[in-house]
Specification:
Helix content: 40-55%
Largest sheet: 2 strands, antiparallel
Strand order of the largest sheet: 1-2
Number of helices: 32
Number of strands: 2
Shape: rod-shaped
Structural class: mainly alpha
Distance between the termini: 34 Å
Oligomer: single chain
Radius of gyration: 37 Å
Low-confidence stretches: 1-28, 31-86, 102-110, 200-204, 364-376
Mean pLDDT: 77
Length: 698
């Protein structure tokens, strides 16, 4: 029996290898069995602990280690408990995500995430063999390649001269930069179709390419309309073709120099439609493209004003029934009618391309002008609304090809709707990586910069649609923001256990502090046997935490905050043993003491009919408390918490001995606490004290 406030003699702890219930156990922070038999209805669930908190490599003689040096210890972090179960494709995607660092934002392919995603999807496209290859090219895999290629242009990875402005810019300038990138992609995409018809590698030869334009015009049926055939013509090589359709084809491909060559050839052939005004507008467009000034620069010339006059005159005369390509080209070169997309558009890409070309037309902001909407007219917003207004049923009626609709939405900068549509269609991986790439470039509305998204993320709700009336197509409206944290959680729901390191790469891309903390806590809580790997271990001697995986990415204070918050969540869930492990890694040892006191207080008296102190949950907490006290961790309250633990252990010992009828030993155990009288004189004093109490107490 102890004396002078020492520790009470406790029955031996349960076996460190097998519990009373016979289940396998691991060692934990307190060197006690990590699995408590489910003997207490009050707890109901399994109270398992994690792997050992103390690493064998650190002893009591190990010197204190500052937080900045933690990661260097042991050559990095503690080894992962198991090999990754993530397949090669998912691992390759995760590698791109992990590489998204601030210094990687450049047009260089090695550091540009959209370029790397495109290369990854192209590789998957190449491995498609035999009869399936055509399906891949025209199916979802081909669309996925196009999606990342589009973003390469819009975000400035494909060409630094177009797309997202570098170095920060006003929102309006960002929108115009993105629109320029989308237009460049649509032109390059169409040029790829033309290049496929140019043989012998002569893709840069003007006449060879123009011949391919003619072939493409014939394939599209553009030369079959009677009105088109009646227009002026130009001879290129051996082909005699309508002038305006060929000029439109050059513009559609973004081949302005080829358009100049066509106009020059037509002028040399005395074509009345190819005069100085047309030629000057084309050359001005070439110069604007070379300097990055944009289409608007070419619309301010006297030649553009002349073409606007011709356009208005043709419409006033009712010549819209003539060659549709003439009116379309006059409008594109002059910016006369900002709202008239293109009467010759054959695909949705043609329609969007014309809208992007004309979005900056001077007439778009001139009240009273044809197609003008006033000084506050938002041409890009109007284009987005016109596309979104059709509804998803127009582009993906059977919901079998969500990537096709997502591509359209991206082209008009409806980024949030594109992500949400993919997620709502079950394309979780595509939605997640698209969202992370857009967020990387700061062009996505998420919980980090949108109040409604933040409110949803705090409730861990993924919002894909907005409440309210349905769209014109009858579908609910897609949300104008992305709840990124819940989306990441959905994608990594299996990964957090199969490969915590890979899941961490995704969680770290969540930028809103509250949402990221919640995801980090979830990652830790899902790895109850991997606390050492994620959070490090607490060394003997100085009781400092060593480096874990999180320390490679987060400062020491934030890692401790994650561990502390995870411990609080564990405590709320009734997992007190897990809470101890987590509080210890946060170096909040007063919380460890609080948990132990709570558990000991709840089981002071042994259960009726049970073998007192020989095992089970009560014996576990007795051994845990003893182990904690023997570590000699300095208490912040001057040792008051330790005294409470000692008193509770003495009470446990008293009731265990009394249950075995060892009454004298039980009384001796309590002697140091002074709760019971030890002599006849003490008994008399207590009786007198009792009789002197107020009646209300008696």
């Amino acid at each position: 029996a102890p004396g002078g406030g020492g520790l009470a003699v406790m029955p031996p702890a349960p076996s460190p290898n097998r519990s009373a219930a016979g289940s396998a156990l691991h060692m934990s922070f307190l060197s006690t069995p990590s699995r408590i038999p489910q003997s207490s209805p009050a707890h109901g669930g399994d109270l398992s602990m994690a792997t050992p908190l103390f690493s064998p490599g650190f002893t009591a003689s190990s010197p204190a280690m500052p937080a900045s040096a933690m990661h260097a210890a042991q050559g990095g972090v503690i080894a992962a408990p198991s090999q990754s179960n993530v397949d090669a494709y998912a691992a390759a995607l995760a590698e791109v995500i992990a590489g998204m660092s601030a210094d990687a934002r450049s047009a260089a392919a090695a550091g540009a995430p959209c370029t790397r995603f495109k290369e990854l999807e192209e590789e998957r496209l190449r491995v498609a063999e035999g009869e399936n290859r055509g399906e891949y090219n025209g199916g979802p895999q081909g669309l996925l390649v196009n999606l990342w290629d589009l973003l390469r242009f819009m975000l400035g990875e494909a060409d630094a001269s177009v797309g997202l402005p570098k170095g920060g810019a006003a929102p309006g300038r960002i929108a115009w930069g993105l629109a320029g990138g989308a237009k460049a992609f649509l032109q390059a995409q169409y040029m790829g179709i033309v290049d496929a018809h140019v043989a012998g590698g002569a893709v840069h030869a003007a006449h060879a390419r123009i011949a391919a334009y003619v072939e493409q015009l014939e394939k599209s049926g553009a030369l079959s309309a009677q009105a088109t055939l009646q227009g002026s013509r130009v001879t290129v090589g051996a082909a005699d073709v309508p002038f305006w359709p060929l000029l439109y084809m050059c513009l559609r491909c973004g081949a302005l120099e080829e358009a100049v060559a066509v106009a020059r050839a037509a002028a040399q052939q005395s074509n009345p439609d190819s005069d100085g005004a047309v030629f000057d507008c084309l050359e001005a467009a070439v110069a604007a493209q070379a300097t990055g000034a944009g289409d608007a620069a070419s619309w301010r010339s006297p030649a553009a004003a002349e073409l606007r006059r011709r356009y208005e005159l043709a419409k006033a005369r009712g010549e819209e029934g003539g060659c549709p390509y003439r009116l379309t080209v006059l409008n594109l070169l002059s910016g006369a009618d900002a709202r008239r997309r293109s009467s010759v558009a054959r695909t949705i890409e043609d329609y969007i391309w014309a809208g992007l070309w004309l979005a900056g037309a001077p007439a778009a902001a001139e009240p009273g002008a044809q197609g003008g909407g006033g000084a506050d007219y938002d041409a890009l917003g109007a284009l987005e609304r016109s596309i979104v207004g059709y509804g998803e049923a127009h582009f993906d009626p059977e919901r079998r090809n969500p990537l096709a609709y997502a591509l359209v939405l991206l082209q008009v900068q409806a980024f949030e709707k594109a992500v949400n549509y993919l997620a709502a269609s079950g394309k979780t991986a595509e939605a997640t990586h698209l969202a992370l790439a857009l967020d990387y470039y700061d062009v996505l509305k998420t919980e980090a910069n949108h109040d409604a998204a933040a409110a949803a993320a705090q409730g861990n709700r993924m919002v894909l649609h907005t409440p309210g009336p349905a769209s014109a197509g009858g579908e609910p409206e897609l949300a104008p923001f992305v709840t990124l944290a819940p989306l990441v959680q959905l994608y990594t729901q299996r990964m957090v256990v199969a490969d915590a390191a890979t899941a961490l790469a995704y969680v770290l891309r969540v930028r809103e502090p509250y949402a990221r903390l919640a995801q980090l806590v979830r990652l830790v809580r899902c790895n109850r046997q991997g606390y050492d790997h994620l959070l490090g271990v607490v060394r003997e001697g100085d009781h400092r935490r060593t480096a874990g995986l999180l320390d490679a990415h987060l400062p020491d204070a934030e890692v401790k905050r994650v561990a502390r918050t995870a411990g609080q969540k564990a405590l709320q869930a009734g997992a007190s043993a897990d809470a101890i492990e987590l509080f210890a890694r946060a170096e909040d040892f007063h919380l460890v003491s609080d948990v132990l006191c709570e558990q000991l207080s709840a089981s002071v008296v042994p259960p009726a009919g049970g073998a007192a102190g020989t095992g089970g949950e009560r014996g576990f907490w007795q051994s845990a408390a003893l182990s904690f006290l023997r570590k000699g961790i300095a208490a912040a309250d001057g040792g008051a918490a330790d005294e409470v633990l000692k008193m509770l252990l003495s009470l446990h010992s008293f009731f265990d001995l009394a249950a075995r009828d060892a009454h004298q030993e039980a009384l001796t155990t309590m002697q140091a606490m002074g709760l019971f009288p030890a002599t006849n004189r003490d008994i008399a004093d207590r009786v007198d004290t009792y009789h002197g109490l107020p009646m209300q107490v008696g």
